[in-house]
Amino acid sequence: MKKTILAFFLMFSAVQFSFGQDEPTKQEIIELSKTKWQWMADQEADKLAELFDDKSVFVHMGGAWGKEQEVNIIRSGGIWYKDADIHEVSVEIIDNTAILLNRITLIAEVGGNEVTNPFEVTEVYIKKAEGWKLGSLSFTKLMGPADR
Predict the structure, then answer these.
(1) From the DSSP assignment, how many helices (H) and strands (E) are in the chain?
(2) Interacting residues of 28 by C-beta distance below 8 A, sequence separation 6+
(3) Cα distances (angstroms) measured from residue 63 to each of 3, 27, 132
(4) Across the strands, what pairs with 136?
(5) Nearest to 125 by CA among 93, 147, 77
(6) What is the secondary structure of 32-80 as a DSSP string?
(7) Burial class of residue 110 in the structure, from the number of CB atoms within 10 Å of its CB (0-12 exposed, 13-18 middle, 19+ buried)
(8) pLDDT tens digit string along 80-138?
(9) Across-strand partners of 113?
(10) This model's pTM is above 0.70
(11) 92: closest CA among 61, 66, 124, 119?
C-alpha cells in the first residue's frame, strides 16, 4: 500500500513538474510573437529574416510562399502589417515545437489599400541550437457574425 501511494505521489509530482516547465516556455513564445508583430508593423525585414527559418512557409489569403518572398514583400511594403490587435492567444508545446494561436484583428496595407480583417493566426516555432525560429505563419480569415 505504501509503495502504491508513493508511486502515485511520484507520478503526480512528475506530471505537475513537467506542466510547470512549459509555462515559462509558453510565455517566451507569446513574447516572441508580440515582438514579431511589432517588427512587422515597423517593417523590420532584417530582424524578421533572422527569426524566420530558411524553410519557413507563409499562408495568406492570396497564396502561400517561403521565407525569401515573405521578407521581400515586407521590405518592399507590398504588405504592411500596421497593427495586430490581439484578442486571444494560446500556446501548446510539443517537444521542440511551439504552436501559437492568435485571434486578431489585423490592420494592414496591401497593394496600397488599407484593409482590416479578423484572423485566427497559427504560428509554429521550432527550437534550434541558435534559439526559436518561426517555421510557419498561417492566416485563416474568420467569418462568424461576431468577427465582422
Answers:
(1) 3, 6
(2) 132
(3) 58, 30, 25
(4) 57, 124
(5) 93
(6) HHHHHHHHHHTT-HHHHHHHEEEEEEEEETTEEEEHHHHHHHHHHTSEE
(7) middle
(8) 999 999 999 999 999 999 999 999 999 999 989 999 999 999 999 999 999 999 999 99
(9) 110
(10) yes
(11) 124
What pLDDT digit, counting tens, does each position of 22-80 carry? 999 999 999 999 999 999 999 999 999 999 999 999 999 889 999 999 999 999 999 99
By the 8 A CB rule, do 91 and 76 touch?
no
| C-alpha cell recorded at residue 27 | 510565455
* Distances from the Cα of 98 to the Cα of 14, 51, 78, 92, angstroms: 21, 14, 28, 6
Residues paired with 99 in a beta bridge: 92, 124
CA 28 to chain centre: 11
C-alpha cell at 22: 512549459
- Provide the grid cell at 115: 484593409
For residue 56, count other CB atoms closer than 10 A to its CB.
20
Cell of 37: 508583430
Cα 92 from chain centroid? 11
| Closest-CA residue to 27 (of 86, 77, 89) | 89
